[in-house]
Backbone:
């Protein structure tokens, strides 16, 4: 009798296991049979920005003699002056090692920064404005 009970329990368990596996297999087979939909490319319209950049930033300005030693004597926009100053700072490793916001001026930059040996990057714009016309 004990064997009949064990056989009945096994038989009861088997269909439950198979039933649980069948839907998963069917779902996989159905997904495999469906043809893949082609991606339709839609034309994306670019949103117009409400703000336009100020033309004052792009106006070519003439650097002073001190600033011309670093960025060149040709008239260039303020944005380009800042790019060239940062390029000079990075190339000559003039950023302070401990506080990266501070710039240690060499002989050329010291003249631009009004004689200061160290200037914060936020004050740099103020000093650059004095040397552009």
Residues:
């Amino acid at each position: 009798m004990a064997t009949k009970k064990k056989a009945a329990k096994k038989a009861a368990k088997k269909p439950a296991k198979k039933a649980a596996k069948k839907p998963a297999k069917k779902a996989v087979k159905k997904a495999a049979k469906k043809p893949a939909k082609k991606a339709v490319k839609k034309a994306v319209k670019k949103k117009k920005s409400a703000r336009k950049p100020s033309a004052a930033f792009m106006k070519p300005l003439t650097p002073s003699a001190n600033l011309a030693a670093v960025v060149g004597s040709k008239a260039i926009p303020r944005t380009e002056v800042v790019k060239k100053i940062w390029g000079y700072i990075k190339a000559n490793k003039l950023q302070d090692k401990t506080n990266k916001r501070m710039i240690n001026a060499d002989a050329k930059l010291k003249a631009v920064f009004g004689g200061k040996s160290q200037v914060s990057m936020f004050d740099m714009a103020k000093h650059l404005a004095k040397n552009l016309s």
About this structure: The chain has six helices and two strands. The mean pLDDT is 81. Helices lie at 2-33, 55-58, 65-71, 78-91, 107-112, 121-130.
